[in-house]
Amino acid sequence: MRLHILFLLLFPCLLLSTAPQAQAAKKSKAAVKAAGYKEIPAFNWGLAATGFVEMFKMRNREVESSHPNRFFPGTAALALGRIDDSGHFLLLKCGASSSCGSIRDVLEDRMVFATLLDAVQTPKVRKDQLYNPVTWELSPLGEKYVDILRKRYPDLSTRLGRLIGAAFAGE
Fold first, then answer.
1. Predicted TM-score of the model (pTM)
2. 23, 115, 120, 148: least surrounded by Cβ within 10 Å?
3. 56-67 pLDDT, tens digit each
């Protein structure tokens, strides 16, 4: 008899405690969809950071061994092997009449974001759909994925800056 009374007292409490959890689960699923987790699922930042540093080192060597005109017509790209005083890690040589400052910034951004997209898991698309493997220029889908990562990590620029510094510190 006592068990029946105990059951009748506890059963309504159990029902009431599961309702808020179900509502919270629905809200979290909506937040997951809104944050782009379908395209880029949740990942371990430490693991992605390690992959980024290693791939960045390889990309740096790739720049050093690249042929002229690979990234932009009339240019030759060189890796500095360090971060200079102005915060750049690439050197772009152009013809005598043109300035390469803004083009160098574009190439550095391409290198960083293509490396980031390589380091994170994108199960629904191949990497060559996100950027051009030769010039590292991001496709519109790659730009969308970078925007998703910027929303997910508002301090993405700071994080990437630290990772670039770590890549050069290890060499």
1. 0.76
2. 23
3. 999 999 999 999
